[in-house]
Design brief:
Layout (H helix, E strand, L loop, with lengths): L3 H9 L18 E2 L17 E2 L8 E8 L2 E11 L2 E4 L1 H4 L2 E8 L9 E6 L3 E3 L11 E4 L27 E6 L14 E8 L1 H9 L7 E6 L13 E3 L6 E8 L9 E6 L4 H8 L4
Enzyme class: hydrolase
Catalytic activity: Preferential cleavage: Arg-|-Xaa, Lys-|-Xaa
InterPro entries: Peptidase_S1, Peptidase_S1_PA, Peptidase_S1_PA_chymotrypsin, Peptidase_S1A, Trypsin_dom
Length: 276
Amino acid sequence: MEKTAVLLFAAMHLWPTAVGGEAEVRGLKPVPIRFVPLLDIKEKEYEAGFEVTETDLPFVVALDFRGRKGNWFCAGAILGHCWVVTVASCTKHASHVAISYGAFQRDKSLFTLHVTSKAIHNSPKNKEFKHDLALIRTNYVKFSDRIRAVSLPSQKIRLPYIDEWTYSAGWGRHHVALMNTNQLRLLQVEVKSNHFCRKSGFGQIIMDSMMCTALAEGDNSCLLDSGSPLVLRDLQVIVGVASFASQLDCRQNRLLVYTRLTEYIQWIRSLIRDDV
């Protein structure tokens, strides 16, 4: 993607008016994005979204966690010189996290910061998939063309963006996949009403603090991660972080649920106000 405008123009020709088949699905079970299965192990390769350049998404960071349950990978976004946002389903069992900045290619990040669980602030209401949000405090990070913060949305807008096309980004880390997931990719995501996700199989687990979304026709969630940011089309404002999908194969065009940041603006600002 050489320029955002070019990507947006090309994407317009791919956006569907509806997600085929989703309204017929029943009995979806919430599964963290990082655990969404790749069911057919005979077909271990997958493709989705757009490649990006080193300066297209300077707010996206790679998060390598370590804890009593082993090692795991998630994504996050920079909110300020000392803060990163991700999901609590990534952080709550962690004792340590390595944060890689400028990592549009996973093996070529500009630098990595290491923090312990003492730097992690989970949403005080978090329980399983409810209020799935966490902030990580870091040492001061200097911004550049490859590292900068993304803006928060307005607190005044409570349930925005329905039927709007947004973008989400990630690397994808599926342990059964042979495909190299070193390259950060950008995917188109349409925000749907929460009622859409409820009637499509998730039922009453969907709360106002969540955002129901659907991938563009032909895309898949295999190259997204838990904590992948959801941003508006100008790539300047973050409105959600990837929380869960379903038990269905990641290569199928399935619903994704993000934590809705407008529900947590006051809590976020209370933590980061002195460090942005």
